[in-house]
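[scheduler] slot 2 assigned
[scheduler] job type: sequence-to-structure, two independent chains
[scheduler] chain ordering preserved from manifest
[runner] begin chain α
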Amino acid sequence: MADPKIRKCRRITGNRLSLVDAKASDAEFILELRSDVNKNRYLSSTSPDLEKQRVWMEKYGFDDSQAYFLILSEGERIGTVRLYDPRLDSFCWGSWLIKNGAPSSAAIESALMVYRYARSLGFSRAHFDVRKENSSVWKFHERFGAMRIRETELDYFYEISAENIETSIQRYKKFLPKGIGIEW
């Protein structure tokens, strides 16, 4: 059996949120979010040049190794999340940013949507890294069952097993009671 592949889709519908495939026309929103001084201290650096962001987004449109989504709440763009770096049955996710003032359930619902979507593609596990200083995010992942496997001076590295993903999907089912809908 072949390893799963990351695939883009037009829309993933959850309970209160939707994830939609990011386009070059979203570059300004993405750059604004990534330029937020309270959020970008935990990210890899981003050029403030809007044209560079547009070019990156245009290239993303042809890149079949990742899926980059806008997170929407009632049609309003409130964040981003990205799936990338497939390794056998594990995927990486990141670029997970949620605007200030977003619904309090946005983080947990968007995380559940990512895991459900990845499972629909055939992935059973995940791996990712979080800046050590970003304690609210690494604590969130640890509550989901992610295991810290190593660290560097700047980052913690995590893996989450298929069993822990399923346990979290069941534990937090009230945030995504009907699962997800996928529009290809």
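[runner] end chain α
[runner] begin chain β
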Amino acid sequence: MAESTKEIVRPTDLVGRALLGMSSVLAVLGGLLCFFAAAMITVSVTGRYLFASPVPGDWDLIGITCGTAVFAFLPYCQLTRGNVVVDFFTVNMAPRGKAVLDGIGALLYLLIAAMFTWRLYYGGWELYESSEVLAAFNFYRWWMVPFDFACMIVLLCVIIYRLARDIRDARTGRESL
């Protein structure tokens, strides 16, 4: 796998800077959620080994926090082009060709993310109406859905922004971010 030597270029326009700020905050929150999950695993395993008393509901909480962390990382990864890219056949391609391929990828990602956002809304609403709670304690499963939904809205905005940049780059033949 070829490592990219490009530095992350900060957007200079107002929309790009705002999206980078929101995406960065979400990514930090996702990192804190991962830290919380790792700490909970450590406490639970230690408690299970030493005292035969793990954290109640640890599996459910780990799943919820890690899933929510993934939602939080998505906008930053898309904005900084940190998502997985298989570029072995585009390494020597002209910037215009890369921009066209990036635009096609962004369009497909936009469609998929829009579908996920749509289904997350209705799935979250169904969890809210059913009042489903975790078995170990009163933690409603829908409590994290609004945050996940907000992350998906930011992701959709980032994808649209990147798509617009890719279209501009394909027209001008230059490479951005």
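[runner] end chain β
[qc] chain β: DSSP finds four helices and no strands in the chain.
[scheduler] slot 2 released
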